[in-house]
Amino acid sequence: MARTNTKERILDVTAEMFRRYGYTGTGLKQVVANANAPFGSLYHHFPGGKQQLGEDVIRRSGQMYFELVAAIFDAAPDVVRGTSDVFTGGGGIAGDGLRRCVSDRDGGARSG
Hints:
mainly alpha
């Protein structure tokens, strides 16, 4: 597995923790512990603290979903089929596609 930089690890861990525990249920100490990062690195990369971290996680996740939807549309023979594929794909296909987007972004270093 290729190494990711500290900022990417923090973003990855935070996204997963937000998904599981929500924004208010996610503590910064737990984020840096799970990201195997020094506490000071959190404020180095996210000087606005938890609010900035949350904003960056949302922007990053939104971009990944945008890329996923675009890839599904691009693979479809027409817009009607593309729309159907996006909405009938459900969580499994969307999740698999999102994992592929992450893997592609990381040079294929990650697995589901």
